[in-house]
Amino acid sequence: MADFYQNGIITTLHNLSERTHEDLESELVEFSKSRPMSLILPSLFSELEGEALPNIIQHLKDVPYLSEIVIGLDRADEAQYRHALKFFNELPQHHRVLWNDGPRLKALDAELNELGVAPRELGKGRNVWYCMGYTLASGRAESVALHDCDILTYDRELLARLIYPVANPRFNYEFCKGYYARVADGKINGRVSRLLVTPLLRSLKRVVGYRDYIEYMDSFRYPLAGEFSFRRDVLNDIRIPSDWGLEIGVLSEMYRNYAHNRLCQVDIAKTYDHKHQDLSFGNDEGGLSKMSIDITKALFRKLATQGETFTTETFRSLKATYYRIALDFVETYHNDAVMNGLKLDIHNEEKAVEMFAENIMKAGQHFLERPMERPFIPSWNRVVSAMPDVFERLKDAVEKDNEEFLG
After folding, report:
1. Strand-pair partners of 178
2. Regarding beta strands 143-146 and 37-44, do their DSSP bridges make them parallel or antiparallel, or are they unpaired?
């Protein structure tokens, strides 16, 4: 059973009573009458052939309160898109699959690129952005949830708990972040959050001093969780990164756009496991190495927008401070694991800390060398300003793909 402690400056909604998903869903069905709900699923084609997504679909088939499911499909040719349409056609809810690599959406993307408002690189951020655009174009939902497609321990309670805070018309939350204990198969997982993000935020407090933004970020129990929900109006003005900084970028945008009392986090799962990334020592373009660099840059960029000045000396101090704090965390997590009968490899934990420390310097150098970098995808408000009929065209392209290839 969870504790009821409220840490930091963001409201935490706990799992105190083990309420059944049937009970939650009965309320959500009532909420849906005045506040219709949808789900965004950013997916790679390869996930259709994995273990997690077929199980997710079986659970979603029984969810009674969703008005729409929007699936973003990446890395799929025509045959794979046809297969995906049949795969997702099991869903009884209204749903659409965005073929991001198809000629219609690529043509629209090329026009947006000519106007300077298209995503600059491939990846999850781009996929999520187009799904958000389609959700706005569809107009079928007022409350929207998003979660990954690689959750091995998925059940429908996760979705119910995730969307409840923004679906309940008596709550005033615009955004909700999911959190959970990253424990599975007798191990403590979540290395990037445990060993990079939290120690880095604590280090920034020492090096740059108190900042409301740092305190805000440190209030989230699992800031890198890929599960969140939001009210529909949030989608219009959000600017998200296209790289691994997506989750940090979304939290930063919520900080920029909304008061703290309009945001919350919720415990959505007792156990959670998904596919794991390699540490990728010596490869800054893949795995947890790239992820750590992108996340660190996202934090530096946000602080810079608030007037913080960074130098090479700042990053050296930050690296040294981080290294000491992170090593202390390794001991803390090891003791926690031992007491709970779990495994934690101190050698590999410290190797990860060493790599993350190096990557703090790499991220800092990248930040200093590219002062004109524009890492964010434009907001949909800006896109509409540049192409007023973009929603109609996006919806039309998706509908035509569906009609042409589903048969």
Report:
1. 266
2. parallel
Collapse the DSSP code of 266 into the 3-class scheme (helix H, G, I; strand E, B; otherwise coil) and give the result: strand
The bridge status of strand 263-269 relative to strand 183-184 is: unpaired
Phi then psi dihedrals of residue 13, to 5 deg: -105, 115
Helices vs. strands in the chain: H and E counts, helices first: 16, 10
d(CA 66, CA 143): 10
Residue 334 and residue 349 in contact, taking contact as beta carbons nearer than 8 Å: yes
Res 205 pLDDT > 80: yes
Q: Token digits for 139? A: 């107009």
Q: What is the largest CA-CA distance in the chain?
A: 61
Distance (Å, whole) CA 340 – CA 145: 32
* Cα distances (angstroms) measured from residue 122 to each of 44, 109, 347: 12, 12, 34
Does 304 have pLDDT greater than 90?
yes
Spacing of C-alpha 128 from chain mean position = 9
98 and 71 Cβ atoms separated by less than 8 Å? yes
- Residue 216 CA to residue 65 CA, distance in Å, equals 32
Beta bridge partners of residue 98, listed in sequence order: 72
State the alpha helices, DSSP H only, in 115-218: 124-138, 156-167, 191, 198-208, 212-217
- The CA distance from 264 to 256, in Å, is 15
- Model confidence pLDDT, tens digit, residues 340-351: 999 999 999 999
CA distance 144 to 65: 12
400 strand-pairing partners:
none
Residue 235 and residue 134 in contact, taking contact as beta carbons nearer than 8 Å: no
Sign of CA dihedral 331, 336, 338, 343: negative
Model confidence at 371, pLDDT cuts 50, 70, 90, reads confident
**What are the DSSP calls for 147-158, one per residue?**
--S-BTT--HHH
DSSP 3-state assignment of 282? coil
pTM: 0.94
Span 231-239, average pLDDT? 95
Give Cα 193 distance to the centre of its chain.
13
Phi, psi at 231, each rounded to 5°: -75, 150
